[in-house]
Amino acid sequence: MSILLQVILPVFIVIGFGYLAVWQKWFSDSGVEALMKFTQTFAIPCLLFRAVSTLDLGQTFHFALLGSFYFGAILGFCLGLFGARFLFKRTWEDSVAIGFCCLFSNSVLLGLPITERAYGTAALTANFAIIAVHAPIAYGIGITVMELVRGRGLTGGQLLRKVLRSMFKNSLVIALTFGFTVNLSGIILPEILTDGIDLLARGALPAALFGLGGVLVRYRPEGDLRVIFYICAVSLLVHPALVWVTGSYFELSPTDFRSAILTAAMAPGINAYIFANMYGSARRVAASAVLISTALTIFTASFWIYALG
After folding, report:
1. Over residues 12-29, mean pLDDT
2. Mean of the pLDDT values across residues 191-204?
3. Among candidates 42, 60, 56, 48, which has minimal Cα distance to 186?
4. Per-residue pLDDT for 2 more than 60?
5. Band of residue 3 on the pLDDT scale cut at 50, 70, 90
6. What is residue 105's DSSP assignment?
7. Nearest to 292 by CA among 237, 214, 232
8. For a tag site, which of 109, 119, 190, 254 has the least CB within 10 Å?
């Protein structure tokens, strides 16, 4: 138990400091906005760019790992979508936003630091492989299904252009694209440039965790609590359980197995609220689910780390 506390609590202490600082007005709300803009637009993209540009793609990107994780993620989206529609009688638009909450785990702000503290920096290779396609897959599914249920009558080409435009406005997707370009082309970047990028990347996770705490202050546990706890159950328990089953079937290596399950076990990320806000659907439910599930991750992540041994 003491090891679990050493792994999990430091991450949430940083989040708690951010929450407390904004709640007590020691750090302004506009300061949090600026900090999150810095981390999400510059620091985290630098971290992902460097990670993807130096990955051994042949060793890292394989069907067993990505198939195990995204089978669970896509099934989680379906459970969120149809559960919201048929169990909780939400509109189709709300149901898609709720499904997106069940799909988009917080793989960067929570998944990376918790995996690193539990298993070390060397264990993050599989995390970066999952993250490299996380935003394109999640936004691709979410935007496509939302546009389909809205019945706007878009042609296949128009729908594809809309999905791609939305994805490539995301700084993480842009950074990952540049990372793949450098990796596949064999370009050798100057050491001065990579050292500068590394300096930015080193501050990404602690600054983002502090900012995440500050952002959570503005969310309130409002809306339908049954739907919110349904999202929490799918995100924190069902998704990692599905990855456990599929990962065992594909006989993932212990390192890949642990990374896939811990990434799947993370709470919905801020992107879940951004998606809901973008379409004006289930915004209160999404915001509340991010807040409550992030708090519950303290306990559920401890459970999964214990189960993984």
Report:
1. 89
2. 88
3. 56
4. no
5. low
6. B
7. 232
8. 190
Q: φ, ψ for residue 106 (rounded to 5)?
A: -80, 75
43/54 Cα distance (integer angstroms): 17
Burial of 193 (0-12, 13-18, 19+ CB in 10 A): exposed
Name the token pair of 269. Answer: 């990320």
Q: What is the mean pLDDT of residues 63-83?
A: 95
* pTM of this structure: 0.79
pLDDT exceeds cutoff 90 at 290: no
Classify residue 203 by burial, with Cβ atoms within 10 Å: 0-12, 13-18, 19+.
Answer: middle
Contact assessment for residue 264 and residue 308, using Cβ atoms and an 8 Å cutoff: no
Please state, in angstroms and rounded to a whole number, the distance separating the CA atoms of residues 309 and 300.
Answer: 14
Q: Residue 264 to residues 18, 243, 284: CA-CA distances in angstroms?
A: 24, 7, 23
Structure tokens at 124: 């993050």
HSE, CB side, 13 Å, CA atoms: give it for residue 13. 6
Q: Does residue 268 sit in helix, strand or coil?
A: strand
Average pLDDT over residues 52-79: 87
Q: How far apart are CA 212 and CA 217, in angstroms?
A: 9
Q: How far is CA 121 from CA 186, 255, 272, in A?
A: 24, 11, 27
Q: Is the dihedral of CA 149, 269, 168, 113 positive or negative?
A: negative
**Of 219, 250, 309, which Cα lies nearest the Cα of 32?**
219
pLDDT single digits (tens) 121-139: 888 889 988 988 887 788 8
Contact status, residue 102 vs residue 123, Cβ threshold 8 Å? no
